[in-house]
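Lab notebook, design round three. We kept the backbone fixed and only want residue identities now. Task for the bench partner: fill in a sequence for the structure below.
Input C-alpha cells:
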C-alpha cells in the first residue's frame, strides 16, 4: 500500500521560505521518479516539479523555476521541496506523488501540506 505523508506547510509572508517534506512507503522509492503537485483554491491540481529516481534530472514548471528546489533522500524514502521567495500566487495545498511530470501518479494521494502566503 503506497503511503505519502506531506509536512512542513504553514503561513508565511511574501518573500519568505518554507521546506516541505514527503515521507513515503509501500513502494520502491529508490527506483521511482517523484513529483510535487499543488492545487490552488478554485483550480485544478498541477505538477510543478519532478526529480528522477537517482536525483540527477529535475523538471520545474515555469512559475516556480529559480525559486523552488526539489531534492530527495533515497535512504529516508523522502522527497523535499525547498520554496524560496514565495508569493501570494504560491498559496495552495501541496502534494507529492510518483511519476515524472505528473505521468501515472499513484492513486494514494496524501493529505497534502497547506501553504498560505499572506502579509
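Proposed sequence:
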Amino acid at each position: 500500500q503506497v503511503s505519502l505523508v506531506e509536512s512542513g506547510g504553514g503561513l508565511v509572508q511574501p518573500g519568505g521560505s518554507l521546506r516541505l517534506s514527503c515521507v513515503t512507503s509501500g513502494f520502491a522509492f529508490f527506483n521511482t521518479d517523484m513529483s510535487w503537485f499543488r492545487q490552488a483554491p478554485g483550480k485544478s491540481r498541477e505538477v510543478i516539479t519532478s526529480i528522477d529516481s537517482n536525483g540527477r534530472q529535475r523538471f520545474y514548471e515555469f512559475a516556480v523555476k529559480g525559486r523552488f528546489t526539489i531534492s530527495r533522500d533515497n535512504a529516508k524514502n523522502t522527497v523535499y521541496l525547498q520554496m524560496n521567495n514565495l508569493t501570494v500566487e504560491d498559496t495552495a495545498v501541496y502534494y507529492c506523488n510518483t511519476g515524472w511530470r505528473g505521468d501515472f501518479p499513484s492513486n494514494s494521494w496524501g493529505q497534502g501540506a497547506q501553504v498560505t502566503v499572506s502579509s
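Keep this in mind before ordering anything: Residues 14 and 87 are 5 Å apart (CA to CA).
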